[in-house]
Amino acid sequence: MPRIVVEAAEALLDQEIPVLDKGFVRLVDYMGSDERIVQAARVSYGAGTKTFRQDRGLIHYLIRNWHTSPVEQVILTFHTKMPVFVARQWVRHRTARLNEISGRYSVMKDEFYVPAPEHIRPQSTDNKQGRSEDRYSPEEEQEIIRIFEEEQRQVYANYQRLLDKNVARELARNNLPLSMYTEWYWQIDLHNLFHFLRLRLDSHAQYEIRAYAEAMAQCAKAVAPIAYEAFEEHILGSVTFSRAESEALADMLAGRPVGLEGRALTIFEEKLKKVRGSEPCDPPEEPQLGAPNTEGWALEPQKTS
Ligand SMILES: Cc1cc2nc3c(=O)[nH]c(=O)nc-3n(C[C@H](O)[C@H](O)[C@H](O)COP(=O)(O)OP(=O)(O)OC[C@H]3O[C@@H](n4cnc5c(N)ncnc54)[C@H](O)[C@@H]3O)c2cc1C
User: Annotated catalytic residue: which of 200, 210, 256, 276?
Assistant: First the structure.
């Protein structure tokens, strides 16, 4: 069976997608595509789908029903450059394999993240982890940028002084800050990349890591466009209601007052806003699957293993 080649992904290979002021995402390589997901799924379902419409229906079916193992057959390798504080959040995603630049071996470059003025915001009052919508005056924004840059210059000058004294690189880096840029190779399968993207494309994720997630989403979409569409349809665009929220929804539909208040009501209203703003894709064709395999996969009811 020949290697799967996807034109849109080939066009992205080795291209640096700029992120933040000095970072990037570069798709180094990929293995498999929508076609590989379908091939792998056929092992479960027997000779099944053949046409594009049927393949699309099958991929939607798999992702909608959390039959994720065929999606794990697609692999993407990225080279990315990001501030250390972004890497700290990123590294929490444990299902990837990575190799990072070594500050013991290499002299760290004089490259630090300085936020663009529009991203400099005061502390949010209702979200302890986030920024508010308010902006500083242009003068204040410039002053804040000056403070960031001044400190970065100072800390790097001291790093160089320590290197000049021949202090070991592994120790000289001791005071280097979270804003310093680092680089790594990061390899992940498509299912776990979708998990990463679901968490890091979310509006609750910090803007800086979200910017990287957007660039990686662009790569995932190029590599496996149908799977990405299904991810957007069934995962990214879906809304989960808790039991209390489901009850509130039923009350709302029946014209009864909603029994939620305070923060619970705000969260519920945010979810309703997402529901109202969603734009579903064209409905996919339901796949005609072969006999369920030994895992017992069947059309309905959905089953996970
Ligand atoms: C908006 C936001 C805010 C966050 N805030 C904080 C914070 O304040 N403090 C903080 O520490 N973290 C924080 N995190 C990180 C978060 O708790 C997760 O660690 C991170 O999102 C990775 O998710 P994950 O574990 O599901 O992903 P992965 O590591 O990719 O794992 C995927 C799934 O595999 C399973 N898994 C993988 N490895 C193991 C293992 N060793 N043991 C058991 N199960 C495993 C789990 O089911 C997991 O869901 C935040 C994340 C987000 C998106």
Answer: 200
Is residue 200 part of the annotated active site? The answer reads yes
Locate the domains of the chain by residue range.
Answer: 7-113+179-237, 119-178
Ligand 1 atom with least separation from CA of 200: 53
At residue 280 the predicted structure's pLDDT band, cuts being 50, 70 and 90, is: confident
pTM of the model: 0.91
> What's the whole-number mean pLDDT along residues 125-135?
85
Nearest to 54 by CA among 43, 41, 71, 65: 41
User: Is the CB of residue 72 less than 8 Å from the CB of residue 192?
Assistant: yes
What is the mean predicted confidence (pLDDT) over 148-166? 98
CATH for the stretch 7-113+179-237: 3.30.1360.170
Name which residue sits closest to atom 39 of ligand 1, judged by CA: 94
Per-residue pLDDT tens digits for 287-300:
876 555 545 554 43
**Atom of ligand 1 lying closest to residue 205 CA:** 1
The finding on whether 199 has its CB within 6 A of some atom of ligand 1 is: yes
Average pLDDT in the 119-143 region? Answer: 90
